From TrEMBL:
Segments traversing the membrane: none
Pfam families given in the database record: BtrH_N, DUF4872
InterPro entries: BtrH_N, DUF4872
Butirosin biosynthesis protein H N-terminal domain mapped to chain residues: 14-142
Domain DUF4872 residues, every copy: 155-324
Lineage start: Bacteria, Bacillati, Actinomycetota, Actinomycetes, Kitasatosporales
Record protein name field: Lantibiotic ABC transporter
Length: 329
């Protein structure tokens, strides 16, 4: 068995921040999960639907791996990424790093991982690999998936080779901190303002505050979008609250990030944003509960109330981000 010594196998709530935490703690940089999420400008919104999808998807963060790239840039980390179409080469890339004493981040499709309870394809899942033997790989995943876990080498190879939405070609990555990295405190303001600017000026109407407003118009029509509302609506609600989002479609994580920042910076605009995102987080949990109730009861009024809430959330989050663009000014 080959393992990296001294690995802190703490799992947290979201897959990408869990893996980032493992890699950075091994570099001596121990940041909270909300701080990792916020410094990576991770918050967003997308209403995603297409003809080949069984049901619409509500997403609350930036695209997979964008958070990692953002965090590396912000903290001056050396991000080394390897991709290949070859299973053999993809595994050689990982083995060499582990043997050299480095934990490795992997992007893969969680469907194939043997310890995963919910068998749903998600090609943007991220784990940290810290060891292997001739049969299994040793990984760190989220708390809800077990934290320190293992899966067969065959299942890991299948997960890394999967093709489909959000997948990558056997992507593996490492992070290396410079000798004198910038203080996370000094990077808070640019992280907040960059996230706010992207949220307020989305390139298409499905994203940011415009996407939330669009969801407010379309969610009330969801009974016409499904042939099995008892399956699809509770599943959508579950993904919002339990599927590694930290609850409230990542708004709990961003609220907690802003609260950490408010302890470090005395800024009225930051406090305004924190108050509004505290309100938004509560309302997103209410949205998920209404969607679940609609699916279980068949009551269209629940979806109508959801639409009203979403329109209100679009306003609340727009006002929050407008305040946050002025942090540090």
């Amino acid at each position: 068995m080959t393992t990296v010594a001294g690995i802190d196998v703490r799992g947290t709530q979201h897959c990408e921040t869990t893996a980032l935490g493992v890699l950075l703690r091994h570099q001596g940089l121990d940041l909270s999960e909300p701080m990792l999420f916020g410094l990576g400008s991770g918050l967003s919104f997308v209403y995603w639907d297409s003809k080949n999808m069984g049901f619409p998807f509500l997403g609350g963060r930036v695209k997979p791996f964008d958070l990692t790239r953002n965090l590396a840039t912000r903290l001056g980390l050396d991000l080394t990424v390897q991709e290949t179409t070859s299973r053999r080469k993809g595994w050689e890339n990982v083995v060499g790093l582990v043997e050299a004493g480095h934990p490795v981040g992997l992007q893969l499709d969680s469907y194939y991982l043997e310890y995963f309870g919910a068998k749903v394809h998600f090609g943007g899942h991220v784990v940290a690999l810290y060891g292997y033997d001739d049969r299994v790989a040793y990984l760190v995943d989220t708390d809800q998936q077990g934290g320190a876990v293992s899966t067969s080498l065959t299942s890991l190879a299948d997960a890394r080779a999967a093709r489909g939405p959000m997948t990558a070609r056997h992507r593996s990555f490492t992070l290396t901190a410079p000798r004198n990295p910038p203080s996370p405190r000094d990077r808070i303001v640019p992280a907040i303002t960059a996230c706010a600017d992207a949220f307020l000026h989305p390139p298409i109407a499905n994203l940011g505050h415009r996407g939330i407003d669009k969801a407010g118009k379309l969610v009330p029509t969801w009974f016409r979008r499904t042939d099995d509302p008892r399956r699809d609506l509770p599943q959508a609600a579950l993904l919002m609250e339990k599927a590694g989002t930290g609850g409230a479609l990542f708004r709990n994580l961003y609220r907690d990030f802003l609260a950490e920042c408010a302890d470090l910076l005395d800024d009225s605009h930051l406090r305004t944003g924190l108050g509004l995102y505290t309100e938004a987080a509560d309302r997103w949990t209410e949205v998920a509960a209404l969607i679940k109730e609609a699916g279980e009861s068949g009551d269209a009024e629940c979806l109508a109330r959801t639409g009203t809430l979403l329109h209100e959330l679009a306003r609340v989050e727009r006002e929050a981000m407008e305040a946050l663009t002025r942090v540090g000014a």
